[in-house]
Amino acid sequence: MKTSDFYYDLPKELIAQDPLEDRSSSRLMHLSLADGSIEHRHFTDILDYLKPGDCLVINDTKVIPARLYGHREKSGGVVEILLLKRMAGDTWECLVKPGKKARTGERIVFGDGILKGEIADVLDDGNRLIHFEYDGIFEEILDSLGEMPLPPYITHKLQDKNRYQTVYAVHDGSAAAPTAGLHFTKELLKKVEESGIAIAHVTLHVGLGTFRPVKVDDVEKHQMHSEFYVVEPDQAEIINRTKQNGGRVISVGTTSCRTLESVTDESGVVHAGSGNTSIFIYPGYKFKAIDGLITNFHLPESTLLMLVSALAGKENIMRAYEEAVKERYRFFSFGDAMIIL
Known about the structure:
With about 350 residues, this protein is of the alpha/beta class. It has helices spanning about 140-145, 185-195, 235-245, 255-265, 305-310, 315-325; strands spanning about 25-30, 40, 55-60, 60-65, 65-70, 80-90, 90-95, 105-110, 115-120, 130-135, 170-175, 200-205, 225-230, 250, 275, 290-295, 335-340. The chain folds into two domains: about 5-65 and about 160-340, 3-Layer(aba) Sandwich (QueA-like), CATH 3.40.1780.10; about 65-145, Beta Barrel (Thrombin, subunit H). Strand 1 and strand 2 (about 40) form a beta hairpin.
């Protein structure tokens, strides 16, 4: 299986640069798992595809404003920092630009000195460990100084940080949003629950590896990035009870899907727990947990496009994407949605 098998031609103007004013007003494509048929709807019609007794599984991770701009304490040179992962205490693994001069012991000042950092180590992959110093609460300082780490294909400045955040985001830790959930409003989620559909929460902190291109020709040789997840016992019980009662489990986003597929055994039982997953789902994979997926439209040749192809079939997905381009759907993080069910 070749990476090039998952290429499609996307006009640049179809890459959504800004979120819609109303989250739930995006378009919705339904791709049927039964016969591959396609319907064009709006996201507010999502309830037409769900049934009482079903369960939506959402990822309640919260994106942190992880991009910081500072200057070198000695030279005054501008430095861009991207927080990737909290290691211990106030030490973070970071991307640093420009990286050549970012040597161990280098000190960086942010926001007139309310936050300072010192490079503690240079890792093998070029990332840096930075130890931060500050007075007060780190999250509050980050909220005042940091910017949302938008994907590289979004060039417009985000006016409202909350628009790159789901309405149910709780647990700080992501460097990218679980974007399928961006379409839900609190009002729409309330309608979902009132319709007899359960909502279960999992947490997977999305890393920048989600944007990493597949650089090998042979799909099976790609090394997937690792991400931290948590599935609480009461949430695992909701999902297992749904399955026992004959309901369908529909994942909101590929991150929820990867979490569930990582914690579900061969008999279809979801197990609570936490850890790191580097699961790579591509055609040929046999799904153990989910029956359907709500997702956005993904980049050509990406691992996420491979995941949806594993669920719906590569031919069906590539045909659906061709249709989406023809119908001028909006693509990627701030774009339109698809339900595969």
